[in-house]
Amino acid sequence: MIKSVLPQIIHQHIEGEQCQWRLFISGELAFFDGHFPEQAVLPGVTQLDWAVKLGCNAFGYNANVATLEVLKFQQLILPNTYVDLVIEHQAHKSKFIFSYRDSDKRFASGRIALNSSINTDMNTAMNIESAS
Protein backbone atom coordinates (compact mmCIF):
# COMPACT_ATOMS: atom_id res chain seq x y z
CA MET A 1 0.00 0.00 0.00
CA ILE A 2 1.26 3.49 -0.88
CA LYS A 3 1.37 5.99 1.95
CA SER A 4 -0.64 9.12 1.20
CA VAL A 5 1.81 11.92 0.44
CA LEU A 6 1.02 15.39 -0.84
CA PRO A 7 2.82 16.77 -3.89
CA GLN A 8 5.22 19.68 -3.69
CA ILE A 9 3.26 22.86 -2.99
CA ILE A 10 4.84 25.73 -4.92
CA HIS A 11 2.38 28.41 -3.85
CA GLN A 12 -0.87 28.72 -1.93
CA HIS A 13 -3.41 31.53 -2.10
CA ILE A 14 -6.55 31.84 0.02
CA GLU A 15 -9.19 34.43 -0.67
CA GLY A 16 -12.52 34.19 1.13
CA GLU A 17 -14.12 30.83 0.38
CA GLN A 18 -11.65 29.87 -2.35
CA CYS A 19 -8.19 28.38 -2.05
CA GLN A 20 -5.68 27.73 -4.82
CA TRP A 21 -2.49 25.69 -4.74
CA ARG A 22 0.18 25.56 -7.43
CA LEU A 23 1.49 21.99 -7.34
CA PHE A 24 4.43 20.24 -8.91
CA ILE A 25 3.58 16.61 -9.65
CA SER A 26 7.00 14.96 -9.53
CA GLY A 27 7.58 11.81 -11.54
CA GLU A 28 9.32 10.43 -8.44
CA LEU A 29 6.01 10.06 -6.55
CA ALA A 30 5.18 6.41 -5.85
CA PHE A 31 1.65 6.94 -7.21
CA PHE A 32 3.02 6.66 -10.74
CA ASP A 33 4.54 3.20 -10.20
CA GLY A 34 2.66 0.70 -12.34
CA HIS A 35 -0.05 3.17 -13.36
CA PHE A 36 0.48 2.50 -16.38
CA PRO A 37 3.50 0.73 -17.88
CA GLU A 38 3.24 2.48 -21.28
CA GLN A 39 2.73 6.00 -19.88
CA ALA A 40 2.67 6.88 -16.19
CA VAL A 41 -0.40 8.88 -15.14
CA LEU A 42 -1.54 10.25 -11.80
CA PRO A 43 -4.43 8.09 -10.52
CA GLY A 44 -7.80 9.78 -10.02
CA VAL A 45 -8.01 8.42 -6.48
CA THR A 46 -4.78 10.29 -5.65
CA GLN A 47 -6.22 13.51 -7.06
CA LEU A 48 -9.29 13.05 -4.86
CA ASP A 49 -7.15 12.30 -1.81
CA TRP A 50 -5.19 15.54 -2.28
CA ALA A 51 -8.33 17.62 -2.81
CA VAL A 52 -9.92 16.20 0.36
CA LYS A 53 -6.80 16.68 2.48
CA LEU A 54 -5.93 20.16 1.30
CA GLY A 55 -9.54 21.37 1.30
CA CYS A 56 -10.34 19.97 4.74
CA ASN A 57 -7.18 21.47 6.18
CA ALA A 58 -7.77 24.88 4.57
CA PHE A 59 -11.40 25.15 5.68
CA GLY A 60 -11.19 23.36 9.03
CA TYR A 61 -13.04 20.10 8.39
CA ASN A 62 -12.26 16.63 9.61
CA ALA A 63 -11.55 14.49 6.54
CA ASN A 64 -14.89 12.68 6.55
CA VAL A 65 -16.35 12.43 3.04
CA ALA A 66 -20.09 11.79 2.68
CA THR A 67 -20.34 11.58 -1.13
CA LEU A 68 -18.51 12.44 -4.33
CA GLU A 69 -20.50 14.17 -7.06
CA VAL A 70 -20.05 14.83 -10.79
CA LEU A 71 -16.46 13.63 -10.98
CA LYS A 72 -14.85 14.28 -14.34
CA PHE A 73 -11.35 13.33 -15.37
CA GLN A 74 -10.88 15.23 -18.62
CA GLN A 75 -7.13 14.96 -19.23
CA LEU A 76 -4.33 12.85 -17.84
CA ILE A 77 -1.91 14.36 -15.34
CA LEU A 78 1.52 13.16 -16.39
CA PRO A 79 4.74 13.05 -14.36
CA ASN A 80 6.69 16.29 -13.85
CA THR A 81 3.69 18.52 -14.47
CA TYR A 82 2.65 21.77 -12.81
CA VAL A 83 -1.07 22.08 -12.04
CA ASP A 84 -3.33 24.36 -10.05
CA LEU A 85 -5.77 22.83 -7.59
CA VAL A 86 -8.63 25.24 -6.97
CA ILE A 87 -11.20 24.56 -4.26
CA GLU A 88 -14.32 26.64 -3.69
CA HIS A 89 -15.89 26.10 -0.27
CA GLN A 90 -19.68 26.02 -0.04
CA ALA A 91 -20.00 26.21 3.74
CA HIS A 92 -23.82 26.16 3.80
CA LYS A 93 -23.74 22.76 2.04
CA SER A 94 -20.51 21.40 3.60
CA LYS A 95 -19.14 20.93 0.07
CA PHE A 96 -16.04 21.65 -1.93
CA ILE A 97 -16.04 22.24 -5.67
CA PHE A 98 -12.57 21.34 -6.92
CA SER A 99 -10.70 21.45 -10.18
CA TYR A 100 -7.22 20.61 -11.34
CA ARG A 101 -6.15 22.85 -14.19
CA ASP A 102 -3.34 24.72 -15.85
CA SER A 103 -4.44 27.94 -17.57
CA ASP A 104 -7.39 26.89 -19.77
CA LYS A 105 -6.49 23.18 -19.67
CA ARG A 106 -8.76 21.16 -17.35
CA PHE A 107 -7.52 17.90 -15.87
CA ALA A 108 -10.24 16.97 -13.38
CA SER A 109 -13.16 18.43 -11.45
CA GLY A 110 -15.99 17.50 -9.14
CA ARG A 111 -17.74 18.11 -5.85
CA ILE A 112 -16.91 16.64 -2.48
CA ALA A 113 -19.74 16.56 0.07
CA LEU A 114 -18.47 16.28 3.63
CA ASN A 115 -20.03 15.13 6.83
CA SER A 116 -20.25 18.53 8.47
CA SER A 117 -17.88 17.83 11.35
CA ILE A 118 -15.75 20.94 11.63
CA ASN A 119 -12.29 20.46 13.08
CA THR A 120 -12.32 22.36 16.37
CA ASP A 121 -8.54 22.46 16.58
CA MET A 122 -7.99 25.30 14.13
CA ASN A 123 -4.35 25.48 15.21
CA THR A 124 -3.76 22.54 12.86
CA ALA A 125 -5.42 24.26 9.91
CA MET A 126 -3.03 25.39 7.19
CA ASN A 127 -0.12 23.34 8.56
CA ILE A 128 0.23 21.07 5.54
CA GLU A 129 3.56 19.41 4.92
CA SER A 130 4.35 18.83 1.28
CA ALA A 131 6.43 16.03 -0.16
CA SER A 132 10.05 16.83 -0.85
UniProtKB/TrEMBL annotation:
InterPro entries the record matches: ApeI-like, Dehydrase_ECs4332_prd, HotDog_dom_sf
Limits of the ApeI dehydratase-like domain: 13-111
Pfam family, one: ApeI-like
Domain of life assignment: Bacteria
Gene3D superfamilies linked to this entry: Hotdog Thioesterase
Protein name (database record): Thioester dehydrase
Upper taxonomic lineage: Bacteria, Pseudomonadati, Pseudomonadota, Gammaproteobacteria, Alteromonadales
